Amino acid sequence: GKLQCGIEIAVKRLSVSSGQGPDQFRNEIKLMATLLHRNLVRLLGFCIQNEENILIYECTENGSLDDVLSDTGRKARLLNWSTRCSIIDSIAHGLLYLHNFARQSTCIVHRYIKASNILLDAAMNAKISDFGIAKIFSSNPMEAAPTRGWGTIGYTAPEVFFNGTISNKSDVYSFGVLVLEIISGTKVNSACFHQYGRSDNLLTCVYALSSELITCMLSSGENVSGLEDALVRYVQVELLCVQGDPDERPIVEKVVALLSSTEALAGP
C-alpha cells in the first residue's frame, strides 16, 4: 500500500488462524516502537480496533528471503554470491544489535529467526521482522520456555525443542541454519526431509549438506572471483553456530568478528 504522503508501506493483519495471540501482537508493538536499526524492519504505526489488529511496516520491495529461495527464477536473478554474503552480514549485525545494543544492560532474544522473517528491500538489504515472541533478558540470557518445541522445525535449537531452554545461543543456532540456506540456496527442511531422509536429526543433515557445499558452490559455474575465502569462512561459521551444545556455539559478537576476519577458522 501507499500512504497519502507517498510512502510505500506493508500492512500485517493479524489473522485468527495465524497462531499469534493478542499478547504477542502487543509484545511486537512494544518492542518495535523502541528499536531502530538498518537491519530491523521499521514499524511505522499500528491499529487495534474491535477484532482488527494491524501493524504498518516500511515496505520491503523484494518480500521475504523465503519467497526468494522458493522461486528458482528470482533466486537466480537476485542472489549472486556477493548479495548472499551481504544478506548474511546484515542478519548478523541485526542480531548483534538485539543481543547487545538495543537496550542498556539487556539482551533481546528474537526466538523466531527463519527465512520467512527476513525481509529484503529494493537494494536487497536484509531486515529482521516478527518480534511477537521475542524475549527481553535483563541479566543471564537463559530461561525455560513455558512450552517445549516452540518455533519452526529446522530452525529451532535442540535445547529449545526438547528442553524448552531459551537463550541468546538459540538465536545463534537459527542464524547458522539460515546461513546454510542462503549459501546453498536450498531450504533446509526440504533438503533434509527429501534428499537426506533424516527428518529425525536436522543436525546430521546440516553437517551432510555443509560437507558438500564448499566444493559445489566453487564449481557451480557462477562467478565467485574474490569471494572464495569468504564463502568457505561463512560455511565454517555456520557449522560453529549449529553445534548441538549451546555452550560450544559462539556468541553473536564472535560470529560478526569471524565473518569479517581474515584469520583461519578451526572447525567444530
Automatic annotation (TrEMBL):
Matches recorded under InterPro entries: Kinase-like_dom_sf, Prot_kinase_dom, Ser-Thr/Tyr_kinase_cat_dom
Single GO MF descriptor: ATP binding
Gene3D superfamilies with a match to the protein in the record: Phosphorylase Kinase, domain 1, Transferase(Phosphotransferase) domain 1
Keywords: ATP-binding, Cell membrane, Glycoprotein, Kinase, Membrane, Nucleotide-binding, Receptor, Serine/threonine-protein kinase, Signal, Transferase, Transmembrane, Transmembrane helix
Tree of life domain: Eukaryota
Gene Ontology BP, a term: defense response to oomycetes
Subcellular location per the Swiss-Prot or TrEMBL entry: Cell membrane
Membrane topology reported for the UniProt record: Single-pass type I membrane protein
Residue intervals of the Protein kinase domain: 1-265
GO annotations of cellular component type: plasma membrane
PROSITE patterns: PROTEIN_KINASE_DOM (PS50011)
PANTHER family: OS07G0487300 PROTEIN, RECEPTOR-LIKE SERINE/THREONINE-PROTEIN KINASE SD1-8
Annotated family: In the N-terminal section; belongs to the leguminous lectin family.
Protein name per the record: Protein kinase domain-containing protein
Organism: Oryza brachyantha (malo sina)
